[in-house]
Amino acid sequence: MKPDKERKLSKSLVDNREFIKELLGIGVSFDADVRTLRILDTEVDIYFVNGLNDKDHINIVMKELLELNDFEPRTKNVHELIENRLVNNQVEKVDVTYDAITEILSGLIIVIVDGYQEAFAVDTRNYPGRTPTEPDTEKVVRGSRDGYTENIIVNTGLTRRRVRDDNLRFEMLRVGERSRTDVAIAYLKDVVDPGLVGEVRENLKKIDVDGLSMAEKSLEEFVVNQKGNPFPLVRFTERPDVASAHLFEGHVLIMVDTSPSVIITPTTFFHHVQHAEEFRQSPLVGSFVRWVRFFAILFSIFLLPLWLLYVLHPELLPPEMSYIGPNEEGNIPILVQLILADIGVEFLRIAAIHTPTAVSTAMGLVAAILIGEIAIEVGLFSPEIILYVAISAMGAYATPSYELSVANKLARLILVIITAILGVKGLVIGFTLYILYLTKTISLNTPYFWPVIPFNAKALYHILFRVPIPLHKVRPSIVHPQDERRR
Question: Can you give the pLDDT at residue 326?
Fold first, then answer.
């Protein structure tokens, strides 16, 4: 039965009871229930869902209401007395049946008094979940160890703790016709571009789907026009300090209940190559770490096609570098070896994900050592293939953004194939197409390859070098902040 979203609550408690019981499946679903109390000769229904509420809090609320029978005269307004006795810091009135049911399914309790069309929504939520711990994919040597969880209330609290600004806003929306997932838009009102907030808000309101089964990932594909683009158009983070830093710059955050990953918008290619570790070190050390990471990312993309070019065209090598190239070519063409070895590394990664933690490390060592050694012995791979594929894989793992590393892997395979077919022209054409593709990509009206194209020298300097925090006096122009000066 699909509820009428405009249907008002009835003054008759019996009518409300029958309608809500039917919609919630009370009596069929074991976790949805209702408790009827008699307060000052008036019946009161309390609806709740087990597993989403704090039972102790509900018991306190019911005890306070029942005490009205002992201390209050029956001549007083029951509705007002009950409102005053709801011991909770967050009580709201609802008069639409659909809204009341949504609140019940969100973990609140609904108190309906016979003879009144307004019900009380009392926030007694106590979602099951884990405590804030450091994210596995964004570890730092020195820094905070807390991270976002699957509870949106906890996540907003972790953010508020770092941004104690009265201009910080959390707009709550519900997305999904059936899931009714809580989604919060976070931004600094006096910093962010109002047009950006409006665009994100409108994109969320336009979502027409049963539910967000994959939480933030499902939402991302509605917010940005991903289509066939393999590159990540938003940035995900599970660190409150990283999210807070982007709020100060003028970005908009999107938090989805049930997900520990927060979406940062808008983002460029270079947002995905930065890591919190760089800002936990001195500026010089941070710049060094950043440049090492840049080289690792470049190696992950261009090392294999460049090496293949020199193997297929050794005349391009100067005499002093003639040692580059396989001494033993094996029984399979070099191109096929490269592709098989590269895909083989992906096999290992996927196997490690699906293998229990206790045995994944051992499995990886056995697979890497035994399979690699035996493959060389039987002539399937040459030793140089294993070396360069391993260096390329390490560069991919050094990429802070997992989504970007996978996109670069696809780009690398295409570059390898086009280089094998066209030689030098293929490598030049492939590199040019790679840059052009990044240049023409747009994320929420933001040029993806900024500040290279369109060029911004000052912003590019801040990307290439870890500038001391006191010198960060201007917010990035790409987000069009209302207040350009940092204070």
Answer: 73
Q: Chain centroid to CA 450: how far?
A: 22
Residue with tokens 């070099």: 334
Instruction: Write out pLDDT tens, residues 163-213.
Output: 999 999 999 999 998 889 999 999 999 999 999 999 999 999 999 999 888
Question: For tokens 């007395």, what's the residue?
Answer: 81
All residues at 6 or more sequence positions from 452 whose CB lies less than 8 Å from its CB, including other chains: 460
Six-digit token string for 20: 């809500």
The answer to whether the beta carbons of residues 173 and 239 sit under 8 Å apart is no
The per-residue b/e assignment along 445-462, b for 16 or more CB within 10 angstroms, e otherwise, is ebbbbbbbeeebeebeeb
Q: How would residue 89 be classed by pLDDT, with cut points 50, 70 and 90? A: confident
| Tokens 């099951």 belong to residue | 128
Could you tell me which residues come within 8 angstroms of residue 231 by beta carbon, excluding any fewer than 6 positions away?
Answer: 269, 403, 404, 407, 438, 441, 448
CB neighbourhood size of 94 (10 A): 20
Q: 381-419 burial, b for 16+ CB within 10 Å, e for fewer?
A: bbebbbebbeebbebbebbbbebbbbbbbebbbebbbbb
Name the residue with tokens 């391009």.
Answer: 316
> How distant is the alpha carbon of residue 224 from its chain centre?
14
